[in-house]
């Protein structure tokens, strides 16, 4: 019963979420939604920025934009998944295109899910909640 109450509030207290996106707007809105739900948020502007921060912060869920300069989302996801420490960390691809090809390519590099931008607070928190629950009960 306590779980459903926490869920109703969208409580993600203590959950570390990394958001990698070159759009300041997307980063800010994701940060606001996640902070309101009680999560700890780590922001990164691109893949290189993310790879520099990920080992220090050990996020439980990672959101990565597909279209970014330097390292794109697919490359970033593949690099995260290649590291044994993060092989089990759920990586969710963010894209403004809702294409079948993008989804398939995301799965090929090891992403757990695909979220279309602009996302709603509800869809973002649901996605985090689903992966955090799976991890907590699955491992």
Description of the molecule:
- The chain has 139 residues and is α/β, with parallel strands linked by helices.
- The chain has helices at 2-8, 24-36, 47-57, 73-82, 100-108, 121-138, and strands at 16-20, 40-44, 61-65, 91-95, 113-116.
- It has one domain: Rossmann fold (3-Layer(aba) Sandwich), CATH 3.40.50.
- Strands 2-1-3-4-5 form a five-stranded parallel β-sheet, sandwiched between helices.
- Strand 1, helix 2 (24-36) and strand 2 form a beta-alpha-beta unit.
- Helix 3 packs parallel to helix 4.
- The chain is globular and about 30 Å long.
- The two termini are 22 Å apart.
Write the layout of secondary structure elements.
Blueprint: H1 2-8, E1 16-20, H2 24-36, E2 40-44, H3 47-57, E3 61-65, H4 73-82, E4 91-95, H5 100-108, E5 113-116, H6 121-138
Parallel strand pairs: 1-2, 1-3, 3-4, 4-5
Number of beta-strand segments: 5
| CATH level-two architecture | 3-Layer(aba) Sandwich
Mean pLDDT: 89
Q: How does the helix and strand content classify structurally? A: alpha/beta
Mass-distribution shape? globular
Q: What percent of residues adopt helix (DSSP H or I)?
A: 40-55%
**Largest sheet, order of strands side by side?**
2-1-3-4-5
Order of helices and strands: HEHEHEHEHEH
Q: Give the distance, in angstroms, between the N- and C-terminal Cα atoms.
A: 22 Å
Largest β-sheet summary = 5 strands, parallel
CATH topology-level fold name:
Rossmann fold
> Strand percentage, roughly?
15-25%
CATH superfamily: Response regulator
Any idea what the radius of gyration is? Answer: 14 Å
How many individual domains?
1
- CATH first level: which class? Alpha Beta
Q: How many helix segments?
A: 6
């Amino acid at each position: 019963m306590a779980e459903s109450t926490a869920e109703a509030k969208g409580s993600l207290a203590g959950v570390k979420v990394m958001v990698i996106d070159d759009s300041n707007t997307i980063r800010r809105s994701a940060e606001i939604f996640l902070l309101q739900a009680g999560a700890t948020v780590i922001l990164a502007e691109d893949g290189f920025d993310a790879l520099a921060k990920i080992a220090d912060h050990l996020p439980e869920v990672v959101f990565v934009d597909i279209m970014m300069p330097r390292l794109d989302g697919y490359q970033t996801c593949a690099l995260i998944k290649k590291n044994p420490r993060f092989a089990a960390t759920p990586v969710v691809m963010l894209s403004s295109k809702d294409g079948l090809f993008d989804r398939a390519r995301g799965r090929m590099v090891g992403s757990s899910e695909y979220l279309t931008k602009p996302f709603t607070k509800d869809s973002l928190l649901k996605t985090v909640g689903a992966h955090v629950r799976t991890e907590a009960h699955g491992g």
